[in-house]
């Protein structure tokens, strides 16, 4: 799914309108922790439950109820912090953030404002746009802090009444505050993709943006070179990675236009209209809120054991050992061990299912040339999936057949056109045959015999006198058309590499 | 038979076990007493139905000689800020006037599990904000001591005044109060009963509707120290529902008979700062009297200094208002409780609901607390108060180097007349009433108020013992020792 997004983002973006402006982007990400129960109560967190079903007495703030911290959530928070190279605070604290809202039953949210779970992290990632000629470039973004907090409920507004659903109230969130180290929407999108890849690997967040499991706020400002930071605007709750890139690029252009017209950027909260593809001011944030933070008195400080300190609700050293290979390491391994290039490693790592398919085929030992395999998956396979509107995760099971196709291709038993045809066949709804069987049944073995191929070429030259004439008079472009005729004549079974050589030789004689 | 209600829990428990008394009769006796003291306004909700069912079940257990504990079949009462399943829990407020919880506070559940019989929910100041049990939407609770018709009665003290009166009159053997700044010990002192504020974290707060989370503890009111111990043994111990409850396993307290105890060599501190300006001569005399008594019994009694005591009350008041502002934010009329008939906007709904649902005392504290918590004031007030709180804690830590236990007044006078008391503002009332009691809440340490003697007005005078964290066994032993010597003339019921 992610590699699908790539194309869209890069095409819709354009360079900054004026070179004299620099844009500064900082993201805040709310990631819902993968946990069966809520941060401070035993209520269920499943997404599709009926309205107000996942609500404990604590979640609707019944008087006298108290929060009890969910250890699993602390573990996930610590795992995430470690994967993002953060410094874990051995002691962190919870605070109450006060504001009145119908979907915030207690009148405050429990968060970590003064002493968050972890601080000072960094995330390295590659900004790379598949399908453009730009080379990947490495970017690092710093993480200011990672804190645990409760989600609020949901208000549903009808024409004459408002309803409240508290299923999400108290759901566990990790808020990741990134330093404003990014400069454009491309980078923001690439960073989020890397974050999604990491969180998926360590399984601390489902990252399903369509379910609100990952929500992004973007802070955007512009300045001229060597100026201090400009006034920023905040775009709240952007619901897709594509939206983040689009919103940021739109907002940069908007701010530049405002400044160039002599205006001032107003500090405000805006939202992203993904249909109209523009940001609009939010109405309900007109007044600056004072959240009257206060330490949460019902929760003792949270201790994390690490190093010589062995007492704590969770042990960071033990959790560190549970961290699997992270995306950056995988990319490195794919390049060093499998001989892939940087672009290929990036694309594979950004699509978990595609990577799984790749690794399964490699694991079977069918294919020698891993680069050929990666190329086939990234180009032919993905292009076809786009065409038939399927996700890689839906077709993971076809890995074995995919491997067989690439093996046939690698050994020269079929040509690329046949490979594409076989791909379509094995992905069609009622296919019951392996690629090899299809090849046999439909007689698709590649024709490599020199004589046979020469015969095809000669026949084409004879039948296309005018075109050959044009070629000989210098219009070498028509070579492709002739080659196409050869392919057609061979029913697309000819070894086209060989045909190219033969045809050229015959024409140049 | 009426005398039965004035005996202690051990005696009644034995009578029940012997079959000399039936729980049904005991409960009926207690319920009669409850209705006889109706004019004192100690109860908000009577729970006859629950009591009948509970005593029936208790009777069955006694038939097979298998009581759950020595509280089995014993009538008790609970302050109306502890949640009780299917029983209204009002906090004496309009906001929760019709609030019926669907769960039990841990302390009530533990009493049920011990077989106790609930006779009713007792009166308090709204959300426990007060020290007189006068600010209740159900009207003030009147002290049984020095009672007279009209408004010429004495206050019961508060905020657990209803519980104190219920215990003093024999309507129950013990009652739960809550203690944030003295709310259990203050009415205990004015009503001539024992009032225990346990160590913070020893007794679960789950289900106690909070006033100040960092200071609240469920308190116990009973007529004797032994009865207090019986109840504490049922209540105390870790509760996974309260993250601030202590995980250390609780060891049941067993006090030896008073005659077999000795206080020889016990170091008792008299903190001079508790001898404040407003302390009445009479209370001061009792304080001296008991200090001398202890000395004569072999204790080492010495003056000690706790220099930050005088800042404690103002610091307490700031922290109290801040937590109140936060804790009261949930009462918006959306999920439960009172909701104003207001449809213009959500904001207007909140505003009207809260304007009508809270009294002036609550509203005042909310406004002040929110002011202190504003980001521009936080350091100046809230943080400063936390620092002072630390100093007060240090005072206690330091004093334990010198002495094992502190002896202080509980209240500055005997029970004030209602009409004098209400002429002062809530803030002035609390500043005077909580002076000697709130430092223990600031520090989290246990304290107990025991009745000593009657004043010239014929009203109870109490003194307070304060010990270090988790020193309840010692604290209560000393209390029992004094109790046995002073032989306080308990109220004997004839109205």
From the structure above, extract its key features:
heterodimer; A: 509 residues; alpha+beta; Arc Repressor Mutant, subunit A; 3 domains; nine-stranded mixed β-sheet; three-stranded mixed β-sheet; 16 helices; 17 strands; 39% helix; disordered N terminus; B: 495 residues; alpha/beta; Amidase signature (AS) enzymes; eleven-stranded mixed β-sheet; 38% helix; 13% strand; globular
Shape of chain B: globular
Give the integer mean of the pLDDT values of chain B: 96
Structural class of chain A: alpha+beta
**Helicity level of chain B, as a percent range?**
25-40%
What is the highest CATH level, the class of one domain in chain B?
Alpha Beta
Report the total helices of chain A: 16
Q: How do the strands line up in the largest sheet of chain B?
A: 1-3-2-4-6-5-10-11-9-7-8
Distance between the termini of chain B: 16 Å
Number of helices of chain B: 16
Biggest beta-sheet profile of chain A: 9 strands, mixed
Radius of gyration of chain A: 29 Å
**Helix/strand/pairing category of chain B:** alpha/beta
Order of helices and strands of chain B: HHEHEHEHEHEEHEHEHHHHEHHHEEH
CATH homologous superfamily classification of one domain in chain B:
Amidase signature (AS) domain
Average pLDDT of chain A, rounded to a whole number, is 90
The name of the CATH topology of one domain in chain B is Amidase signature (AS) enzymes
Morphology of chain A: elongated
Greatest interface (CB-CB under 8 A), with counts per chain: A-B, 30 and 44 residues
Count of spatially separate domains of chain A: 3
Structure commentary:
In chain A, 39% of the residues lie in helices and 19% in strands. Chain A is of the alpha+beta class. Chain A has three domains: 2-320, no CATH class; 351-428; 450-508, Arc Repressor Mutant, subunit A. In chain A, strands 2-6-7-10-1-11-12-13-14 form a nine-stranded mixed sheet. In chain A, strands 3-16-17 form a three-stranded mixed sheet. In chain A, strands 5-4-15 form a three-stranded antiparallel sheet, with no helix packed on it. The longest helix of chain A has 20 residues, at 241-260. The two termini of chain A are 51 Å apart. The model of chain A is unreliable at 1-18 (pLDDT under 50). Chain B has 495 residues and is an alpha/beta fold. Chain B has a domain at 2-264 and 446-486: Amidase signature (AS) enzymes, CATH 3.90.1300. Chain B is 38% helix and 13% strand. Chain B contains 16 helices and eleven strands. Chain B has helices at residues 9-18, 23-36, 48-63, 106-113, 161-168, 185-191, 225-235, 281-296, 309-327, 346-357, 360-373, 379-399, 418-421, 426-433, 438-443, 472-486; strands at 43-46, 75-79, 117-122, 174-179, 194-197, 217-222, 267-271, 300-304, 405-409, 447-454, 460-467. Chain B has an eleven-stranded mixed sheet with strand order 1-3-2-4-6-5-10-11-9-7-8, sandwiched between helices. In chain B, a hairpin with a 5-residue loop joins strand 10 and strand 11. In chain B, helix 2 runs antiparallel to helix 3 (48-63) and helix 9 packs across helix 12 (379-399). Chain B is globular, with a radius of gyration of 21 Å. Chain B starts with 8 loop residues before the first helix and ends in a 9-residue tail after the last helix. The relative contact order of chain B is 0.14. Classes of the chains: A alpha+beta (509), B alpha/beta (495). At the A-B interface, loops of A face helix 9 and helix 10 of B. Chain A: Allows the formation of correctly charged Gln-tRNA(Gln) through the transamidation of misacylated Glu-tRNA(Gln) in the mitochondria. The reaction takes place in the presence of glutamine and ATP through an activated gamma-phospho-Glu-tRNA(Gln). Chain A: It is found in: Mitochondrion.
């Amino acid at each position: 799914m992610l590699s699908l997004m790539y194309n869209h983002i890069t095409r819709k973006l354009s360079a900054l309108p004026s070179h004299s402006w620099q844009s500064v982007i900082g993201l805040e990400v709310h990631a819902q922790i993968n946990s069966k129960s809520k941060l401070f109560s035993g209520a269920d967190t499943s997404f599709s439950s009926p309205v107000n079903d996942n609500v404990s007495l604590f979640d609707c703030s019944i008087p006298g109820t108290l929060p009890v911290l969910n250890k699993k959530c602390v573990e996930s928070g610590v795992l995430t912090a470690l994967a993002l190279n953060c410094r874990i605070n051995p002691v962190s604290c919870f605070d109450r953030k006060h504001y009145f809202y119908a979907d915030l039953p207690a009148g405050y949210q429990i968060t970590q404002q003064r002493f968050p779970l972890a601080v000072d992290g960094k995330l390295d990632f590659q900004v790379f746009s598949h399908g453009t000629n730009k080379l990947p470039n490495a970017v690092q973004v710093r993480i200011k802090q990672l804190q645990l907090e409760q989600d609020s409920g949901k208000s549903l507004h009808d024409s004459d009444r408002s309803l409240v659903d508290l299923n999400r109230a108290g759901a566990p969130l990790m808020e990741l505050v990134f330093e404003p180290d990014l400069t454009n929407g491309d980078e923001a999108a690439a960073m989020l993709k890397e974050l999604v890849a990491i969180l998926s690997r360590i399984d601390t967040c489902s990252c399903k943006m369509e379910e609100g499991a990952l929500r992004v706020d973007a802070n955007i400002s512009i300045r001229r070179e060597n100026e201090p930071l400009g006034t920023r605007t905040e775009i709240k709750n952007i619901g897709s990675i594509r939206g983040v890139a689009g919103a940021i690029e739109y907002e940069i252009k908007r701010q530049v236009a405002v400044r160039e017209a002599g205006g001032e950027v107003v500090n405000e909260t805006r939202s992203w209209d993904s249909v109209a593809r523009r940001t609009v001011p939010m109405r309900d944030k007109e007044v600056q809120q004072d959240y009257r933070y206060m330490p949460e008195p019902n929760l003792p400080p949270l201790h994390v054991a690490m190093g010589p300190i062995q007492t704590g609700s969770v042990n960071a050293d033990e959790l560190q050992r549970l961290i699997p290979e992270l995306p950056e390491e995988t990319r490195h391994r794919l390049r060093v061990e499998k001989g892939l290039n940087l672009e290929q490693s990036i694309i594979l790592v950004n699509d978990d299912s595609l990577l799984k398919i790749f690794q399964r085929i490699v694991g079977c030992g069918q294919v020698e040339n891993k680069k050929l395999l990666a190329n086939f998956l990234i180009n032919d396979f993905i292009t076809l999936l786009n065409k038939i509107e399927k996700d890689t995760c839906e077709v993971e099971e076809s890995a074995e057949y995919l491997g067989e196709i690439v093996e046939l291709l690698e050994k020269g038993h079929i040509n690329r056109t046949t490979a594409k045809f076989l791909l379509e066949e094995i992905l069609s709804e009622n296919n019951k045959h392996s690629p090899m069987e299809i090849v046999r049944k439909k007689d698709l073995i590649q024709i490599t015999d020199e004589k046979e191929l020469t015969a095809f070429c000669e026949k084409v030259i004879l039948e296309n006198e005018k075109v050959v004439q044009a070629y000989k008079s210098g219009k070498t472009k028509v070579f492709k058309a002739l080659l196409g005729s050869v392919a057609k004549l061979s029913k697309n079974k000819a070894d086209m590499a060989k045909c190219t050589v033969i045809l050229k030789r015959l024409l140049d004689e | 038979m009426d005398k039965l209600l004035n005996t202690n829990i051990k005696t009644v428990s034995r009578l029940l076990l012997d079959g000399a008394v039936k729980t049904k009769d005991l409960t009926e006796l207690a319920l009669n007493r409850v209705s006889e003291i109706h004019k004192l306004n100690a109860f908000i909700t009577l729970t006859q139905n629950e009591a009948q069912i509970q005593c029936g079940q208790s009777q069955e257990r006694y038939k097979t000689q298998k009581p759950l504990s020595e509280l089995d079949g014993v009538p008790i009462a609970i302050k109306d800020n502890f949640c009780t399943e299917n029983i209204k829990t009002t906090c004496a407020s309009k906001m929760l006037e019709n609030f019926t919880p669907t769960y039990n506070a841990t302390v009530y559940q533990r009493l049920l599990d011990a077989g106790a019989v609930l006779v009713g929910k007792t009166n308090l100041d709204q959300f426990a904000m007060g020290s007189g049990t006068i600010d209740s939407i159900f009207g003030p609770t009147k002290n049984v001591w020095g009672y007279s018709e009209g408004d010429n009665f004495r206050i019961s003290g508060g905020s657990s005044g209803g519980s104190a009166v219920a215990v003093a009159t024999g309507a129950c053997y013990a009652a739960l109060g809550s203690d944030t700044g003295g709310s259990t010990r203050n009415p205990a002192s004015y009503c001539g009963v024992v009032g225990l504020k346990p160590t913070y974290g020893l007794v679960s707060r789950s289900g106690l509707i909070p006033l100040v989370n960092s200071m609240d503890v469920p308190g116990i009111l009973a007529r004797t120290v032994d009865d207090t111990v019986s109840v504490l043994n049922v209540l105390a111990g870790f509760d996974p529902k309260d993250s601030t409850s202590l995980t250390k396993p609780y060891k049941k307290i067993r006090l030896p008979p008073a005659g077999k105890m000795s206080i020889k060599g016990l170091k008792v501190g008299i903190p001079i700062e508790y001898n404040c300006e407003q302390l009445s001569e009479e209370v001061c005399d009792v304080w001296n009297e008991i200090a001398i008594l202890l000395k004569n019994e072999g204790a080492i009694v010495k003056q000690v200094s706790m220099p930050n005591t005088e800042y404690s009350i103002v610091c307490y008041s700031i922290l109290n208002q801040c937590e109140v502002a936060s804790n009261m934010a949930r009462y918006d009329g959306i999920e439960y409780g009172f909701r104003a008939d207001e449809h213009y906007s959500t904001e207007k709904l909140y505003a009207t609901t809260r304007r009508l649902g809270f009294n002036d005392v609550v509203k005042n504290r909310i406004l002040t607390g929110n002011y202190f918590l504003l980001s521009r004031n936080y350091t100046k007030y809230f943080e400063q108060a936390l620092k002072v709180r630390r100093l007060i804690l240090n005072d206690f830590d330091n004093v334990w180097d010198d002495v094992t236990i502190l002896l202080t007044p509980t209240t500055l006078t005997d029970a004030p007349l209602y009409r004098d008391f209400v002429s002062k503002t809530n803030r002035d009332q609390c500043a005077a009433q909580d002076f000697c009691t709130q430092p223990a809440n600031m520090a989290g340490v246990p304290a107990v108020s025991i009745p000593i003697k009657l004043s010239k007005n014929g009203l109870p005078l109490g003194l307070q013992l304060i010990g270090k964290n988790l020193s309840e066994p010692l604290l209560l032993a000393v209390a029992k020792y004094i109790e046995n010597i002073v032989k306080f003339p308990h109220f004997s019921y004839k109205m």
